Amino acid sequence: MPQLLEFILHLSVERGHVIDVNLISRLLKPDIITPRVSSALVAYISGTKIEDLQGINCFETTVPEQMAVVYSLIPKLKTIRDVALNRLNEEIQAGSTLLLTERVSALLEVYSVAIADSTNFDWATCANGTIKTKLQIAFNVTQKELLQTAPNTHQVNVLQRAISLFPSLNRKDFLKRIATNRMRSALTDSTVALVDALVEKSDDAYISEMKGWFLMVFDHLTRRFAEDAVLSDKVIAIAMALGLSIPVIIYYFY
């Protein structure tokens, strides 16, 4: 059954078909949804118009597969967004941090906007004082969680926005976390951009460990340029991001 549902959802994405919102609501029930069905729903939602998603009921989310779908609905539906923010605040007060970073990431994508020709972000016009306060509280808790693991896509997204939005962000601690992770899989153009943003306009973000991290990045790129007949998109993206970080490199080495 899950395989059939997944196939139907992917087919709907490919052909641009609209799925009845009542059916989507039923698919979100704990006894039906699976990781594969959840992924297919997220793909469907991302490519579907807002008006075709109105009326989805997914407020009673208790499992990660359901919550992943909610994250994808947050940018689309204000009703989902309002409930998600209030529930996040309530759960934090109750000591629950299930998938906290992913939820904060989805909300920040709605309530913050990139500043043109800059790595900085600003609050969106729809973010009032209450929303900012709730997200600040959520980030303060998220920050502790982020410092315990290597940055993934959601974490990088949160940090890139938090640098501009939340004065409580500890730049040095996050730089140290990045510097101590020498796994090639963790090296992306987003990570390079994050380092750039953490150091930019900061007089107290210098840490000596970052020299070793930059040397690791240079070594990785040198090997790829020397050994690969065709550079991967990932390597090209890292090289381009590093090119934009020249002021940061000078800051550490000279």
Walkthrough of the structure:
The chain has 254 residues and is an all-alpha fold. It has three domains: 63 residues; 95 residues, no CATH class; 85 residues, no CATH class. It has a two-stranded antiparallel sheet. Helix 4 runs parallel beside helix 6 and helix 5 crosses helix 7. The longest helix is centred in the last third of the chain and has 19 residues.
Task: Offer a concise description of the structure.
With 254 residues, this protein is an all-alpha fold. It has helices at residues 2-15, 21-27, 35-46, 64-73, 78-93, 100-111, 129-146, 153-165, 171-179, 189-199, 209-227, 233-243, 246-253, and strands spanning 112-114, 121-123.
Blueprint (SSEs and pairs):
Blueprint: H1 2-15, H2 21-27, H3 35-46, H4 64-73, H5 78-93, H6 100-111, E1 112-114, E2 121-123, H7 129-146, H8 153-165, H9 171-179, H10 189-199, H11 209-227, H12 233-243, H13 246-253
Antiparallel strand pairs: 1-2
